[in-house]
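Weekly sync, protein design subgroup
Attendees: M.S., D.O., the rotation student, P.L. (late)

Item 1: inverse folding check
M.S. brought a backbone from last month's batch and wanted to see whether the design step gives back something sensible before we order anything. D.O. pointed out we never logged the input encoding, so this time it goes straight into the notes. Structure tokens as presented (194 positions):
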């Protein structure tokens, strides 16, 4: 039928569990003070030290910046990063960066206009994936509405995530889940009549 309370219950519960996992990630890893190599975007004066021009600044050279960060990670004995996670505002800043727009402007047609997407950014930076962290939650108290992004909308995280996770390979993004049902299904819902 049109309304299926059993499916709706499973969908809502699963969505809440995924939102919880996003919040655990944001509170533990997608914030300042957690990593040894942190950079800050600035406007106006020339950046110095661990600063760079903000993503939407005309002086920001995104391809060079992320290329240098990748080399720095490899120089320290780590694997070449292959995933870039972006907050919503950071993604919008890169989408509107004049240098990136210049690189893609002639790749479109009337039927398929040139647009900057996560796939385009991944190809430009030579990463497997660029993901936008756009989950939201209500940060207000009971009866209040205060919708906010789970992850810092201005943040970015560059990491290596193994394409085929294994127990003996270091990688970002590992989480443990008991595979109680087999086939990668770690959530079980029981349905009762009545």
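Designed sequence read out in the meeting:
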């Amino acid at each position: 039928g049109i309304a299926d309370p059993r499916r709706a219950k499973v969908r809502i519960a699963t969505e809440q569990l995924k939102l919880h996992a996003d919040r655990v990630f944001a509170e533990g890893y997608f914030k300042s003070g957690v990593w040894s190599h942190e950079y800050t975007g600035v406007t106006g004066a020339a950046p110095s030290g661990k600063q760079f021009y903000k993503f939407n600044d005309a002086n920001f050279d995104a391809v060079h910046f992320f290329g240098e960060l990748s080399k720095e990670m490899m120089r320290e004995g780590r694997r070449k990063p292959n995933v870039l996670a972006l907050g919503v505002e950071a993604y919008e800043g890169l989408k509107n960066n004049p240098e990136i727009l210049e690189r893609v402007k002639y790749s479109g047609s009337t039927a398929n206009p040139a647009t900057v997407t996560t796939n385009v950014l991944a190809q430009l930076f030579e990463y497997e994936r660029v993901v936008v962290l756009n989950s939201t939650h209500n940060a207000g108290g009971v009866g209040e509405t205060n919708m906010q992004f789970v992850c810092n909308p201005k943040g970015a995280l560059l990491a290596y995530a193994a394409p085929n996770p294994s127990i003996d390979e270091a990688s970002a993004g590992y989480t443990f889940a008991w595979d109680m049902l087999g086939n990668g299904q770690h959530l079980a819902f029981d349905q009762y009549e009545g």
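Discussion: The mean pLDDT is 88. Strands lie at 40-42, 51-53, 83-87, 129-133, 136-138, 147-149, 156-159.
Action: P.L. to compare against the previous round before Friday.
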